[in-house]
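Here is a protein:
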Amino acid sequence: SELKSATQLVAQGELGHQVPVRSPDEIGQLTASFNQMSADLAKANQLRRQMTADIAHDLRTPLSVLQGYTEALDDGKLTGNSEIYQSMHRQVKHLNRLVDDLRTLSLADAGQLSLHPMAVAPRDLLEHTVLIYAQQAEKQQVALELEIPEQLPQIKVDLDRLVQVLGNLISNALRHTPAGGHIRLTAENSQQQLVLRVTDSGAGIDPEDLPHVFDRFYRGDKSRSVNGESGLGLAIARSIVEAHNGRIIVTSTVGQGTTFTITLPTL
């Protein structure tokens, strides 16, 4: 039968093979389910191939830089100085960041991301995060603002992981917000959910890039910078939020700015 032949083709690696649905009965429903499974397998395989290519791309640049420096130093064409060593150190840090981020995503995909939840006051979470990035924001002449009501219910989260998420969003905003702009963190309680927002007055994200900002290694011009970043930060942010039974979305207007909204269950 067509379905049996198609099953054999998929088993042999021809993913994405489809079979016409010729009837609404049980066989037809089984065929439709097969088609969906086949399409899902093909998509997963494509994503795996793309991710492998992206990882190779991200590894190639710093490794090429390091190879160039070490060969030039060994040949005597370059004399080691502070500037060269700092550049080499930056490339090594980038490689370490990429490896760490890949490991975090791998654990999240396997449902093995280590979390240490505890009761946390939203104000403590936000104030702690703002303190970390205040100096960088001041250096870039970007106002880092915090607006939070006095009374908010606690949330049960891994504090370090949530700081990682918010820090990633702030770092992303700082890369795309010019001097004189602002980044605002807000929090509110809505229907037993804590709603956190990180809003910037930066360049905004193009509409065609917006659906892909959480994709791994996505290289939209406004969604993510690869300057010293692994290209996995927003994907990791989503994985961490979802591991806390939360949700993260993004809205943006080109030329006006971007808002990331996180919702988390309250205690």
Notes: The first helix runs from residue 2 to 11. The radius of gyration is 23 Å.
